[in-house]
Design goal:
The protein is built from 6 helices and 7 strands; from the N terminus they run H-H-E-H-E-E-H-E-E-H-H-E-E. It is an alpha+beta fold and about 290 residues long. The structure holds adenosine-5'-diphosphate and magnesium ion.
Length: about 290
């Protein structure tokens, strides 16, 4: 009996010792893991700081570059238009063609610079939305005026369907105009013949849908999702020849989100594309940026 007890006590303490040993080993292991995790955290913090710095630098570089490009491009455009208007004497037909070439190229470059500047501003959180009441009629005539020089020399018709029976809108008309301007310039770029049609219609009671439809080359269905991502472009020879930075549509998507809306596309290769933006008739206050 005693023997057994002693024996059992010995057994127990051996077990205990073993358990204690295991516990100590575990603690040591845990301690080590902890140190490791702390080191990893520190590394992550450092990497996050570096990333923030890189992204700040990128935004600053983009906006600096865009500003430095804008001024000379503006001069090129206004001198080209002085020449076209023959204010300093007549041009030969060949010279007219050459000047038109210069101003088209300068306008494309200036569009690209604008896209880059917008992207930099959005990334830096420096885009502010200022909604106001306005009439769609004014929006459409401003857009028509903007595209007149391009449409006048093109085989494609640009048609604005008169907005009938639509209420006034409360939103940021500049941002909305920019979305539509991007859609329209894409459609004009990727349409050889036929028309580009801009229309507006109510979507339910709270929203309005603006659509830009063209009879252009179209886009394969598997590309539709990716189109609205940064720098995404369709990989076909015809599109390659014409495309710009690949930022236009992703900017449209971001602007639409800022207005509390969304963008989308329907398109069939060889038949044409419809790009649309749906936004609230009256912008909700929580979307308004106070800055
Ligand atoms: N109306 C359209 N018809 C055909 N393809 C289009 C049209 N709009 C856009 N795309 C395709 O989507 C791509 C991305 O458009 P976007 O973001 O505006 O970039 P970018 O015009 O600078 O190339 C274009 O390069 C083109 O391949
Ligand atoms: Mg574009």
């Amino acid at each position: 009996m005693t023997d057994n007890l002693v024996h059992g006590g010995l057994d127990e303490s051996a077990e205990l010792r073993q358990l204690r040993g295991e516990a100590a080993a575990l603690r040591a292991e845990l301690e080590e893991t902890n140190q490791g995790v702390l080191a990893l955290y520190a590394e992550l913090d450092m990497q996050a700081a570096q990333l923030r710095e890189a992204s700040d630098l990128k935004s600053r570089f983009l906006s600096y570059m865009s500003h430095e490009f804008r001024t000379p491009l503006g001069s090129i455009l206004s001198i080209a238009s002085l020449l076209t208007d023959e204010l300093d004497g007549p041009l030969s037909p060949e010279q007219h063609k050459q000047v038109a070439f210069v101003s088209t190229a300068a306008r494309e470059l200036s569009d690209m610079v604008d896209d880059l500047l917008d992207l930099a501003k959005i990334e830096a959180g420096r885009i502010s939305i200022s909604p106001a009441w306005f009439d769609m009629f004014d929006l459409f005539s401003a857009l028509r005026g903007m595209f007149r020089p391009i449409v006048d020399t093109s085989a494609v018709d640009l048609i604005f369907e008169a907005p009938k029976g639509l209420p006034r809108l409360y939103t940021d008309d500049k941002k909305l105009a920019q979305i539509l301007r991007n859609f329209i310039s894409n459609s004009l770029k990727f349409t050889q013949r036929g028309e580009v049609r801009v229309s507006a219609s109510l979507e339910g009671e709270q929203e309005i849908r603006f659509a830009v439809s063209d009879t252009g080359i179209g886009i394969p269905p598997e590309m539709h999702e990716a189109l609205f991502e940064d720098f995404s472009q369709v990989d076909s020879p015809l599109q390659k020849r014409l495309r710009g930075t690949g930022l236009g549509l992703s900017l449209c998507k971001r602007f639409a989100a800022l207005l509390g809306g969304r963008v989308g596309v329907e398109s069939q290769p060889g038949i044409g594309s419809t790009f649309y933006v749906v936004i609230p008739l009256a912008m909700a206050q929580e979307h308004v940026d106070e800055s």
